[in-house]
Amino acid sequence: VYFSALNMFRYESSQPITIEGRASKQPLTAAEFWQTIANMNCDLSHEWEVARVEEGLTTAATQLAKQLSELDLASHPFVMSEQFASLKDRPFHPLAKEKRGLREADYQVYQAELNQSFPLM
What we know:
mainly alpha, 44% helix, LucA/IucC-like, Siderophore biosynthesis protein SbnC, Aerobactin_biosyn_IucA/IucC_N
């Protein structure tokens, strides 16, 4: 795990992260992993907006799980590839899309990756 200029933390390895003494063999969720990093760096965690990042991770994981469960790339391959890129926070764009701020109902209506139609006013 290292500090990057665009993202607070990046994990670069093909090996899973393990925590010595942890009873469960289940993988950590993104929010649990973040909390572990924050707990390991208590002296700095007040600068990291721990709750805000955890909220964003939880929201992103929930939205991604729902979107992937409904994804059908068989029709409209270009549109679907753009929607899939949106699901992955547009990996070739310099900044990820903000995941917080919309109510769940608004997210379902207005986000591009869900392919909903709505009027422009």
